[in-house]
Amino acid sequence: MESPGESLKIILQNAREFLSLIIAKKDDLIIPEMRSAVQDAWDEIENKSIFTLAINSVNDVPEKNLKEAGLTDAQLEMKKKGYELAREKGEKHRALEWLKIILGSLQSTSDKLWWLEIIKEFIEAVGASLEHEVA
Predict the structure, then answer these.
(1) Rounded to an integer, what distance in angstroms lies between the CA atom of residue 68 and that of residue 71?
(2) Which among 10, 66, 96, 131 is least buried, having the fewest CB atoms inside 10 angstroms?
(3) Residue 130 carries which DSSP code?
(4) Which residues partner with 30 through β-bridges?
(5) Contacts of 1 (CB under 8 A, 6+ apart)
(6) Where on the phi/psi map is residue 90: left (φ > 0), alpha (ψ -120 to 50), or beta?
(7) pLDDT of residue 19
(8) Confidence at 114, pLDDT banded by 50, 70, 90
């Protein structure tokens, strides 16, 4: 069984891939008026290596802080499972909501994790820009 930190790194890597797929299919998934703006914002996040910074910074969070934020044991498993199930079912809005929950919990572990706010806001913007789907 992987450590909570390793699980979170995997979730962040998976989130980057998930968002990358949404951006790659933006002509089918994102409302036309937002496609260019979303692409530009994604390019900025990629150019600044925000996800790499996020993944590497997980190591700096003490496990005690992860536990206090509900990112260990059954609490982490619930969040991870919710995200994975939404992805498996193709429920993009729901998957994005689970990611926001996970990132919010991780952000609460340290004031030094400012980059999470950028990712979380991008996820919110992508969710708001998706064509309608049943959540």
Answers:
(1) 7
(2) 131
(3) B
(4) 130
(5) none
(6) left
(7) 97
(8) confident
Per-chain mean pLDDT for the chain = 94
Q: Where are the alpha helices (DSSP H) in 4-91?
A: 4-24, 26-29, 35-47, 50-57, 63-68, 73-88
d(CA 58, CA 39): 26
> Residues 65-110: pLDDT tens digits?
999 999 999 999 999 999 999 999 999 999 999 999 999 999 999 9
What is residue 111's three-state secondary structure? coil
**Tokens standing for residue 5:** 């930190």
Separation of first and last alpha carbons in the chain: 31
Cβ-based burial of 33 (10 A; exposed 0-12, middle 13-18, buried ≥19)? exposed
The amino acid sitting at 71 is: L
Q: 102 and 11 in contact (C-beta within 8 Å)?
A: yes
Name beta bridge partners: 130: 30
Tokens coding 62: 């003490």
